[in-house]
Write a structure and sequence with these properties.
The chain is α+β, with helices and mostly antiparallel strands. It has twelve helices and 20 strands. It has an eight-stranded mixed beta sheet with strand order 1-2-3-4-5-6-15-7. A seven-stranded mixed beta sheet has the order 9-10-11-12-13-8-14. A five-stranded mixed beta sheet has the order 18-17-16-19-20. The two termini are 25 Å apart.
Amino acid sequence: MAVTSSTSSSPPYVVRALAEDEWDRVIEVDAHAFGITLDDEVSRAQRPLHEPGRLVGAVDKRDTLAGIASAFSFELAVPGSIVPAAGVSWVGVLPVHRRKGVLRALMTHQLTDVHRRGREALAVLWASEPAIYGRFGYGLASRGLSLTVPRNPRALRADSPTDPALRLRLLAPDDWRTTAPLYDALVPTRPGLLARDERWHARAMSDHPSMREGRSALRCVLAEDDGGLRGYARYTTKPDWSSGPPQGVVAVREVIASDSAAKATLYRYLFDLDLMGTTELGNCPVDDPVLFWLADLPGTSPRLFDALHVRLVDVGAALATRGYAEPVDVVLEVTDPACPWNQGRWRLQGGPDGPATCDLTGDAADLSLSVTDLGAVYLGGISLADLSAAGRVREHRPGSLAATSRALEWTPKPWCPVVF
């Protein structure tokens, strides 16, 4: 399927699936759009992640590839369930073709294609420029937390959990088969986690020398007992001898643990490595227990950042396949100019004891909101009541806002550990 986009001041762009032999053209667009240069090793590693028919490009009448977009077929943890989701990535436009309708053509084509395929009721992405994607119905649905912890063997409070049965062991960093079962078992427990097949487990521990920027090779430490693996952390180190005493940096890529004692044990290790000055936790859940274990939280400069954005491609199917913390029976009036099949009033009924339903209805609306804001609350980490206080949700039936907000919220908070 191809889509043509045009404006009075630009040539038409045909959006079509890109062939295998067009990969070099894709890399060129990506390099210009993101201001980077990928070496051959990195380029070869990225190619197998893209799926036939889902890597598309906007081509002008001179056969110039003006822009690209891709989607990965993910399984995503959402409140109470795991659902198919289109993972949108590699979206970029050549600098000389900006502001000519290329991005809109790509996004319109992609949303229509996801809807036509019928496998995924929602799309998700990490936004390099978040302001762009709200125009296409993506709402900020999760945040991450970053911390910079000064080296200290007592960085954690004395009452943080311990377990003498735990022991630490270093693992070859490319041995993802040892850590994969633990990650896989935890996916259903937290919204935002992506199920990983072999390609994505390997991608999570990718370590290309050209991308290290002076850091060490990737390392992996395990926390285990006689019963098996209870946690792991992947990290790199970067030495710094520039100001006398060593002040190296530990950059933590991922900490995964099945229980609090295992996670605290891994943090103690990461916060007290020889010759290091600080440990950077670049992406933690916003409700990570480390916030309550650190002896000096203000001294770690905690910072929130935007993470996963969610777009409901098919409102009824998306809302029917997630769980709800409390009973809900509400009519939502949804505006969605980009996907007209979502426009209208939807009756959502569900609760913690069974499957939900969400169907078009002629009943009067209880709440009105955009599909962007519906995407923002979908993973349970953003409050519908907070969006209403910001003027983005209208309540028509008194009491419906508070009840629906409570039903949508979820514990634990959503978290996505890998940027795709």
